[in-house]
Amino acid sequence: MASGNLLSTVPLANSFEIAKEISTQKVPNASSSAIEFLSLIGTDEIQPCLFEESLVAISENGQTIGTFSISVKWTCYAPEGRIEEKCYLVHARSKGTVDGVPCMTSITGYITNNLETVEQHVEESVRFREHPVETRTHVVKRQDQIFVRKTIIERDEEIHVNSSSYNCSLLQGLVSDSANLLVLRVMARRQTVPENAIFLSFDSDHHICTSTYSALGFQKQHVGKEEVDVFVIERAVHSTEGLPLNWQFCFLSDGHLSRRVQVGSPVIMLLQQVPILIETDEPDPHPVFGKIPLDWEEDVELFSQFLDRKEELQASHATYVRRHPELSNLLADFLQLLLLRKPDNVVTFAAEYFAPFSAQNPPCRSFQSSDKPSPFLSRV
Fold first, then answer.
1. What is the pTM of this model?
2. Distance between CA 70 and CA 47 in Å, rounded?
3. Coil, strand or helix: which one is 170?
4. CA of residue 4 relative to chain centroid, distance
5. How many other CB atoms sit within 10 Å of the CB of residue 326?
6. Residue 360 has what DSSP assignment?
7. pLDDT tens digit string along 211-266?
8. Residue 30 CB coordination number (10 Å)
9. CA distances from 238 to 100, 185, 199, 304 (A)
10. Of 7, 55, 49, nearest to 221 (Cα)?
11. Which of 193, 199, 192, 158 minimizes the C-alpha distance to 176?
12. Which family would the database say this protein is a member of (predicted)?
């Protein structure tokens, strides 16, 4: 991002032409804490960060000189020859005038669920009357390589093209300009910033460099007629050449940006009205029911059910006996014979007594083996 412009980005192109000469540059390494921080950001945490917001650009003397907007939403990304996948579409745009010169900066990026940048377009333009200058930068990931192509256009004519490529395995912890807008919202909602974490980023010339985030604490800010608490984050991009670039971002509790300042720039982005804050629905905790000992005799309802069931069974049994008078005669005969014989093994005696009534056993003379061991008793 150039310090003289309001922001940094671009409209999406349908194809990517790689220059004939591609330079491979040595890149620094991100810290393990930065890589871990990015890996722990889940989809459920990013979901509340998908919204649009708009600020105004204010000059040093307090005049409104432009607008600044950011939009993050779901979309489908399907480059030529690849399977379609869902990702985040991040679009930021600033437009205004600085010292009477129209300036425009635009960023469009496609970010995966893992916060990896698969494609990004950056466009910066300064419209001098006789000498308009436009810079276009295209970043695209293809297989295990990231290609960067930067083009400078003056008076509608390409005057400089620079291309470079990087191995993706060397870019762990990379936070592009578009991914940065999403990461900042996550940090703002957490109200924490990873300490001593070193990320990778693109500098103003789109060379790979390091970047850091710092929490500056909470401040009071007037937004419209209201005074609100904001969480302040400072981001520094340590360019490979020249001084580092610094930005300060002030956020409301839900991730809405309330103020953006680029150190050294005369332009400040301010929120004009407090938006309706985004609240996430937290599920109610599952109820926990303790185990209560059951004493059914003391429970009036259960004891009443027991008595009702007891009377119901007694009435059912009495009805069955009345309908089958032979049952009383059969049991009376068995009990009379049992008392006359007085066998030592009552179970075997009962089995032999009722055996002739079974349809599965052949007929035999009753009580021939009253003294045999009972087949119904286990042997010790």
1. 0.69
2. 16
3. helix
4. 37
5. 7
6. S
7. 999 999 999 999 988 999 999 999 999 988 888 899 999 999 999 999 999 998 88
8. 23
9. 30, 21, 10, 81
10. 55
11. 199
12. Belongs to the CATIP family.
